[in-house]
């Protein structure tokens, strides 16, 4: 293993050790984390419902290492640890929003695959619809301002007659 790979492995371990330690602890939250999200606001969940909610929430939470994948789709150690944390939070009765706030405290709003529809992020939600409406407006406007086929044919005939007359004048001189 070359030096670059060795350094990358060491850096990865420094990042993952605290996360894996959190995921393996008995309680899903430490003392500091209760200040961020408070006490559980939902009911404890087990069984099939626990697995379904875990799958749903991990599919909308971005992997901080892969960045383009959710933690449900990523196979990195940090994603696996985060999945386990999510499972523990849900089992303890924390709501999805509380769990997302917990991860936002560490990683920022970037951790959400779908940004909140507030503030500047609202443009992410509004811009596609606005572009679609603008495009429809331009198409309708263009179609209405286009001359009728009969008027276009008359204009063509007038232009053709003028051209023929000019050619006659130039060739007869």
Question: Can you walk me through this structure?
Answer:
The chain is mainly alpha-helical. α1 runs parallel beside α4 and α3 crosses α4. It has two domains: 112 residues, Helicase, Ruva Protein, domain 3 (Orthogonal Bundle), CATH 1.10.8; 53 residues, no CATH class. The protein is 68% helix and 0% strand.
Count the strands? 0
Low-confidence stretches: 16-31
Question: Mean pLDDT score, rounded?
Answer: 79
What letter string, H or E per element, gives the SSE order? HHHHHHH
Helix coverage percent: 55-70%
What are the main properties of this structure?
about 170 residues; mainly alpha; Helicase, Ruva Protein, domain 3; 2 domains; 7 helices; rod-shaped
Secondary-structure blueprint:
Blueprint: H1 3-24, H2 31-37, H3 47-59, H4 77-92, H5 96-107, H6 122-145, H7 149-172
Helix pairs in contact: 1-4, 3-4
